[in-house]
Design brief:
It contains 3 helices and no strands. The chain is mostly helical and about 120 residues long.
């Protein structure tokens, strides 16, 4: 049987690798939940006519057109920002998934090394 200090070191390495896999799994899940939630949020802005505008008549037509144009511009800005954030999230998810794959490989290697040490 391999010496005890070697087995302890390999057990610690496996434990650390397993903890890292768990941490990264949680991070991927959290990022994907944020991405899903953001994807479902609409950037549409509804224009609501108030009672005073209905009573006032044509006096507010130019103002209403400007408000609708402003809201349309704001909608475009929101949509653009949402798409930028979704791209950044997707990039970050890909990066963390790559880190996770590396951590899983380290965990597997640590487990295999510990098994070999235990069998010696």
């Amino acid at each position: 049987m391999s010496n005890l200090s070697n087995i302890i070191a390999l057990t610690n390495a496996l434990s650390a690798a397993t903890a890292e896999v768990g941490r990264l799994n949680g991070r991927v899940e959290k990022l994907k939940a944020i991405q899903t939630k953001l994807s479902k949020n609409s950037t549409k802005i509804a224009y609501m006519v108030t009672l005073s505008e209905l009573i006032a008549g044509e006096k507010y037509d130019a103002e209403e057109k400007q408000e609708k144009a402003d809201l349309g511009s704001l909608e475009k800005i929101l949509s653009t920002k949402k798409n930028e954030i979704l791209k950044l999230l997707n990039s970050k998810i890909t990066q963390v998934e790559e880190e996770l794959a590396t951590a899983r490989l380290s965990e597997m290697n640590a487990r295999n090394a510990l098994n070999v040490a235990l069998q010696s």
